[in-house]
Write a structure and sequence with these properties.
- The chain is built from no helices and 26 strands.
- Among the domains are: about 120 residues, Immunoglobulin-like (Sandwich), CATH 2.60.40; about 100 residues, Immunoglobulin-like (Sandwich), CATH 2.60.40.
- The relative contact order is 0.11.
- It is mostly beta strands.
- About 0% of the residues lie in helices and about 60% in strands.
- About 5% of the residues have low confidence.
- Strand 20 and strand 21 form a beta hairpin.
């Protein structure tokens, strides 16, 4: 007779028990043994992998291992059974999926009566992990104390009495995690991380002449810190939310703002945009745009032409402290620079980035003289 072992999961409490029934009968759980080793892996942000070790008491011959689940979101195609020991005498023969049921049946062969240690793995929805960060700026906004946290949220419908949680970029930890529970753990702390406050003016996004606008025009402001060993630590930072506070000089802090960050590899900067500031004003104008080198067809129509263009941007710092402005300019198509009074970095074929360092209560002016080439009329 084939022995049926039922592993059921009304709330994904896995279990194994002998049930001597005909091979085609469906059975229900009558006992729940203690859960063995359980690992919740969140290496992949798109899915959470659950791994549970169980001990099955097998008879000689064919054993039906019946796995079912209710009340939780399990990906049926992800469910796997692995024989950990004894591998020589116990093997998985096949698997079948009963119709219209949240269940599957593994057929396991044992050469002799044995206690087999197995690992059941599956992808589960409703439980995830995310990164969160907190920075406390000093009064001068030149440095901050930075903390990294990992947050685990369990809305899967399952209570994990004891689980080992594995997340990317952090030490694994063990603790109970109940359904509808959120766990927040401190991962790392870095004190006195150097910070640069940066204003960013993108000529494609902001008005060129703020005096002509009906409302106040602010420039986005951000705080940047290098992810190196001497600063943030040099460990890759996972995507997450960053909240910034600032010391108020009275032993407390005030909230500055928050932003979401993408993955920050080692050696790259973390940039946190917290809002807009009117301490820096940029007034940009196009001083010249002439057509030159005009090419015509046989009928006299213009086919191609170049341009001779001049753009100026006046930058004013109204603060009593130094400031750094990132000034972004765009020149579409094919072009060449005739003259420019500031150094720049080409971010791509059409984007130029200038770093403008301003003394307190000072101003600077950018002047670009360039040609755009081979423009069709």
């Amino acid at each position: 007779m084939t022995r049926r072992i039922s592993i059921t999961a009304p709330a994904l409490l896995l279990a194994a028990i002998f049930l001597a029934v005909p091979a085609l009968a469906r059975t229900k759980m009558t006992a729940l043994p203690e859960r063995g080793r359980c690992v919740i892996r969140m290496d992949n942000p798109a899915a959470t992998l659950i791994q549970e070790d169980r001990v099955l008491t097998l008879q000689k011959g064919k054993n039906n291992v019946d796995f079912s689940w209710n009340g939780v979101a399990v990906d049926p195609d992800s469910i796997r059974l692995e024989i950990l020991s004894p591998k020589a005498s116990v093997r998985l023969i096949s698997v079948s999926y009963p119709p219209n049921e949240n269940a599957l049946v593994w057929y396991v062969w044992s050469d002799a009566p044995a206690e087999a240690r197995v690992r059941i793995a599956y992808l589960m929805a409703g439980i995830d992990g995310l990164a969160a960060y907190k920075g406390v700026l000093n009064e001068k906004e030149t440095g901050m104390d930075f903390s990294s946290f990992l947050v685990v949220r369990n809305f899967s419908g399952e209570d994990f009495a004891k689980a080992r949680v594995v997340l990317p970029g952090a030490p694994a930890f063990e603790r109970p995690i109940g359904h509808e529970e959120t766990v927040r753990r401190l991962v790392a702390e870095k004190a006195s991380v150097p910070v640069v406050k940066v204003w960013t003016f993108d000529a494609a996004l902001l008005p060129w002449d703020p005096e002509k606008e009906s409302g106040n025009v602010g420039i986005p402001v951000s705080y940047r810190a290098e992810n190196t060993g001497a600063a943030l630590g040099g460990t890759p930072l996972q995507p997450g939310k960053v909240r910034l506070f600032q010391a108020d000089g009275k032993g407390g802090t005030v909230f500055v703002g928050e932003d979401s960050t993408d993955f920050v590899p080692a050696g790259k900067p973390l940039s946190v945009t917290t809002g807009q500031s009117r301490d820096i004003v940029v007034t940009q104008r196009k001083m010249k745009e002439d057509r030159i080198n005009i090419r015509r067809n046989s009928g006299g129509g213009v086919v191609l032409y170049d341009t001779d263009e001049v753009i100026t941007a006046k930058v004013e710092n109204f603060k009593d402290a130094p400031a750094v402005l990132t000034l972004i300019q765009h020149i579409p198509g094919q072009w060449d620079m005739e003259e420019c009074n500031m150094d720049y970095v080409k971010k791509d074929s059409e984007t130029l980035e200038f770093t403008v360092r301003l003394a307190p209560r000072s101003k600077k002016e950018l002047s670009m003289h360039y040609h755009r080439r081979n423009i069709r009329d």
